[in-house]
Structure formats: structure tokens, C-alpha cells
Amino acid sequence: MPPDDTEDAAAKLRESPGAGTGAAHLLPLALNATQKRLLELTALWPWLTNADLSGISGLPESKVASELRWPVRQWLVEKRRVAGRLRITLSDRGLALLARRDRVNVQGVLRQWSAASYDDGGHGVAGTRARDLARHLGHTAAVYRFFAELGRQARAQGGELLLALPPHRAQRSYVTGGRVSHIKPDGYGHVKLHGGSVRFFLEWEQRAAHPAQFRAKLAAYLSYYRTGRAQDDYGAPPVLLVVLRDELVESGFLSTALRLRTGQETPAVLATYAELLRDDGPLGPIWRSEPGGGRTWLALLKSP
Q1: Residue 26 shares a structural domain with residue 68
Q2: Which of 3, 22, 51, 211 has the greatest count of CB atoms below 10 A from its CB?
Q3: Nearest Cα to Cα of residue 204 among 282, 266, 285, 267
Q4: Domain count, the chain
């Protein structure tokens, strides 16, 4: 088809009221830039809500809803009520569209990320990674809300959420002692605040973890920092933010962190607990670096 005819066909497709009628090769031309970005974010953060997508993208919630109408009608995006909330995923058709654009194997993507055949227990989800996120939806949703609220607060203060990566994109490998090890944060973020910026890893831990579990998790981060990989990966070593169940667990975690970090030059390790986070948000004075110490703002950690 000549280029002009292709563009005309894409324009007609955009105006078509039909559902799922668009030829696959025309869909990338028919989608506008905002819709493409929302599809990419939905692929990164499956099972998010309109509010989550608004906070992470920086678009008003009404704009998100209006821009998704056409992709939903073309069966690229699906909305399902899960655990009482309307949540968004890419359909298999939407996943295939992005896979072909990125020249990766479509079936491989679907095996991991297909949200087809969902049931409330998460057991009906076809894709292995999408299924895991659905089975732990409370944890998944809490991490998503953190990044969405961070984006909203940053913009309200004249800043910006520059980058937000979900767990599967935040994981990092490093070599120490001749062995390959990993850190597996619940997310990575880079937020612009008051003329500087903060890079961070997020750990969302709502269990009453034993000190030995804290030590193992912290040891992996400290080892990663010591290798110098953090500087190579991010340009500056990210701080570690940990959200815990309550103040008692927070105190135990920070005591463990202080003992492990003694005599070591490492980025800050800051903790808070869920109630404070709900009240003041990620940019409030909720972060603490030692048990019983004063609380501080994330903005005070910014670097140029």
C-alpha cells in the first residue's frame, strides 16, 4: 500500500466506531503519541488503576481515561474489576503490538505477560509474571500507589518523576567473590526535586521479618554498592528506601542496618512505615535513618 493510502487508512481507523476492527499493521499509525506512551506504561505496570497510571504518567486522570477509550475499543487494552477495583492490562493483541515493534518474540512475551483468563484468585492468568503480580495484588498495588503518589507530590512541588521502573526492570546483577548475585528491589525511581534529584531503590516489606531476613536483604545491597556497579548502572548510587509494617519493625530494621553499615561508605538507607506513608506521602517528613532518630524529607537527600 502506498504511504498516502496507508495514512488515509490509519486516519479512517482512528475514526471508526468498530471494536477490534483495525488491521494490525495500521494500529501503530492510528495510535497517537499519548496513547503509545500509556500502552508502554501499562505493559510495564500491569494491573494498575487509572489513578496509578495518572500519577506515574503525569497526565490528569480524565485524560488517561479519554486516551484509553480507543485502545480499549481496539482490544489493545483491557479493563477488569479485580478485588473491587477496575484495573488495566494490555490484551494479548496489545502485547503482540509492542513485541513486534520491539522485534522480540511474541509468544515469549505472551508466556510471561498475558493476562488472559483472569480469575479472582490469580490462578487463571496465562502469563507467568502477570499471574505472580495478580496473586500478590495487595503488594503489587501498594508499590504502584507509592510511585503514583510520588509523581503527584513531585509535580505539586514543581518537580517531576523522571523515571519509575517496576520490579522486573529494577533487578540488578553483580559479581562478587567470583559469583553472580542479585538485588531484587520492588522498584527503582529517579525524582527531580527543588533543583536536584534523588535516585532510589524501593523495598516494600509489610511482614514482621526476622532480623536474619533483614541482614540477608541488606547484605545484598551493601555488596552491590561495594562493587561500584551502582555508579555504573545509574550514574550515582541510589539510596535505599524501605517501607515497613509499623514503627516497631522499622526500629528493628534500622538497628540491623546500622550494625551492617558501620565503617562502610554506602548510600543512605532510610525507612518508614505504612501509616506515616499514608498520612504524608513519600515526600513528607517520614524517613528515618536510625531507630528513634528524627524524621526527614526525601528532598534533603537530593544531588545535582
Answers
A1: yes
A2: 22
A3: 282
A4: 2
Q: How far is CA 183 from CA 202, 210, 224, 250, 255, in A?
A: 11, 19, 8, 21, 21
Q: Block means of pLDDT (10 residues each) for the chain, length 304 residues?
A: 52 56 78 97 97 98 97 94 91 96 96 81 79 94 98 97 96 91 96 92 84 87 90 91 94 91 80 97 96 93 75
> Phi and psi at residue 17, in whole multiples of 5°?
-80, -5
What pLDDT, on the 0 to 100 scale, is given for residue 122?
46
Q: Which of 68, 43, 64, 44 is closest to 53 using CA atoms?
A: 64
DSSP letter string, 23-68: -TTTHHHHS-HHHHHHHHHHHHSTTB-HHHHHHHH---HHHHHHHH
| Predicted model pTM | 0.91
CA distance 11 to 5: 10
pLDDT of the residue at 123:
56
The count of residues in the chain is 304
Cell reading at 145: 500507589
- Where a domain ends, among 80, 106, 135? 135
At 193 the pLDDT is 93
Torsion angle (degrees, nearest 10) of CA 206, 207, 211, 216 = -80
Confidence (pLDDT) at 118: 53
Instruction: Tell me what pLDDT residue 289 has.
Output: 93
Strands 160-165, 85-90: pairing kind? unpaired
Examine the domain organization and report whether 68 and 24 are in the same domain. Answer: yes
Cell numbers for 222: 551493601
**Could you tell me the CATH number of the domain that includes residue 111?**
1.10.10.10
